[in-house]
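Why do we care about 3D structure at all? Because function follows from shape, and shape follows, mostly, from sequence. That is the central idea of this module. The next example makes it concrete: a single protein chain, its amino acid sequence, and then its structure expressed as tokens.
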Amino acid sequence: MRWFACSLLLLLLVSVPALSLADSPSQSFPHGTLSLISESPWIQPGHDFTLGLRFSLENDWHTYWMNPGDSGQPARVTWELPAGITSGSIRWPAPEQLGTSSGVDYGYKGEVILLVPMHASANLRTTQPLPITTKVSVLVCKEVCIPGKSQLTLCLPVKTQMPPQGNSRETLFAQARNKLPQLMPPGWRLSAREAGDSFILSATVGKRVTKAYFYPSEESQIKNVPDQPITPEPSGFRLELRKSDQLTKTVARLRGVLRLEDGRAYLVDTAVARSGPG
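And the structure:
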């Protein structure tokens, strides 16, 4: 069936030149659309390539990050891949706060692209476009939440040469990568310790910071609140993270995303030291 979908798309390309093998047809779900797109117009054996799940949501509707916060659920994605193609983990853009009447959620509004790294085996050989199929379950919310499902197939040819530079997808995928949390710059230092009913996240970043927010990757570690108490320091800050009421185990590491007052977001993965109150 997936090979038939590729054959059908090839026929459509003849009659509708604006279509591309590097895009799946968009599918609608409640209050949004989803398409599967490829940064490269073809697959090169032995090389990595990147796909994108491109969500476009209606105004005031949102969907969720890997940790949805107090409610909701992230997109669930499964793949049906041809032999010789393997997928990596979703690369989630940095989230934003989504305030609700019952708490604080983490997610996205408008358009968001979830990047997915792929790898092609070095011995991949075929003269036919390869069908890559994904099944996606998504929850979109406003005052109410509505589940949606989509199945998308993308057909990519296999070629031994790299595609020419400057294809139209490069800008789109570059913009998507700019929304990913970045590694901490060299010279920055981050540490965490336990302090009674809180975790204290301390950062040295070379300047005084008056506003920051930590999004935990794992649920039920800290309370999801609109503002986290911050203590500015000459070269950084200390952030107080209240423990979640649902926390039932020792937290050895804090992992997540730290967004600073300039809007930039950084990956956090730091051990938690044990200490007394203070």
